[in-house]
Amino acid sequence: MAKVKMSKKATAIDMTAMCDVAFLLLTFFILTATAKQPEPLPVETPSSTVQVKLPDTDLAIITIGDSGKVFFGVKAPEVRLRTLEAIADEYKISFTEEEKKRFSLMEEFGVPVNQLRTLINLSAAERNQKGLQVGIPHDSLNNQLEKWVKAARNANAEVNEKQLNFAIKGDAKEQYPEIKKIMDILQEQKVNKFNLVTGLRSDNF
Question: What strand order describes the sheet that includes 59-65?
Fold first, then answer.
């Protein structure tokens, strides 16, 4: 008896639903992603094999580079705002509500207090022009960095009721005495624990 041959039908998979999901996910990630802000003082950090993640909150970063220029930044916008208000009281300077709002969006800056209003009113692109920001004074005659550190610590305690953590981000080419000045300023305010920002180095040679 002859065998009946079944006709083979080509299988087809409808990919429409999968394509829709893929585009929805892509759209979601694009809309929710945060663009990395350009650094006003780019530095090449020294290499290290130790991996310790910096805290995401309650953090202030002091950046040192370009032959001793010092920049200061606080992570939380509300703490930045309170810090600015304390500095304004310290130096008898008034800022408008718009200027305060603009400052709260600045992740890092590096100018003397008397140049701060001019910096705030610049666009983000203008602020990050190389050489525009001359650094925060931190010598014995005009130690404005010490004032910023103290104001930021008090502001963080008021807003978050927590102790502010500090990280020092120094350029690998920067001389050690410049880094030690910053350490001394922190230690004078009883800040004896802080992080040193480094780049990851492989052990494979």
Answer: 69-74, 59-65, 165-170, 195-196
Contact criterion met (CB below 8 Å) for 119 and 144: no
CB 152 within 8 A of CB 83: yes
- Given a contact cutoff of 8 angstroms between Cβ atoms, the answer to whether 167 and 197 are in contact is yes
**Structure confidence by residue, pLDDT tens digits, 32-60:** 655 555 666 766 777 766 677 888 889 99
**Of 59, 160, 180, 172, which Cα lies nearest the Cα of 108?**
59
Instruction: Find all residues with CB under 8 Å of 203, minimum gap 6, and list them.
Output: 49
- Residue 195 in tokens: 């992080």
136 vs 70: CA distance, rounded Å = 5
